[in-house]
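Incident review: delayed structure delivery

Summary: a single-chain prediction request sat in the queue longer than the usual turnaround. Root cause was a stuck worker, restarted by the on-call engineer. No data loss occurred. The affected request and its eventual output are reproduced below so the record is complete for anyone auditing the incident later.

Affected input:
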Amino acid sequence: MVEPLLQVDDLNISFHGGRGVTRAVRGISFAIGREKVGIVGESGSGKSQTGRAVLRLTPKGAEITAKTLAFDGIDLLAATEPQMRKIRGKRISMILQDPKFSLNPLMRVGQQIVEAYRVHTRAGKAEARDRAMAMLEAVHIRNPARVFELLPHEVSGGMGQRIMIAMMLILEPDLIIADEPTSALDVTVRRQVLTILDDLVSRRGAGLMFISHDLTLSPSSATGCSSCMRGGSWRIFRRAS
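Output delivered after worker restart:
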């Protein structure tokens, strides 16, 4: 039996504040291999915090406990910060939901993709630029040379989301966490972005953790699911608040 890439067992996330303890995530368990898994739930149910906990990107003051939180045999709760820096981006990437707030507004988008690649490789500037241009083409951006030189405020929401996907996939990570990647897009652009993401993940053989509040975004057209339901090549977990 093939071991899953990500194993989560009894994950709990709590925040301590002036009004006491807020339990954002309570006892969620799931496993992800080289497949597509949807985490579905209403706003405030702890979906995004679950994804951030995998990368240890929860805010200061958060308390994370789990029986198991492991990636490819690595105990993520016990991993040191240098170990996590080697995992973030290179082995696990996270696509955030709004590129306007995720991209550096002062850097040209092409340079941000290049930087993401060079941080984890010994590639020179020319090689990194070629890889960035190839990724912009892979996410169906027309005239990538022109887009490479644009600032984030000069691109549309749909193009910005494609740029984010290019940046997160350029290192060919084993696992992609997509946190509401189409929430700010209109219906037509949303479907285009989902198709591109689905195709790239399938062709590269990566695992995908797709976080959404909208069950209809997955290829499964099911309108209800309990703890786990299979729809096409997807597995869907529903989170209750």
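Verification: Residues 187-204 form the longest helix (18 residues).
Action items: add queue-age alerting; document worker restart procedure.
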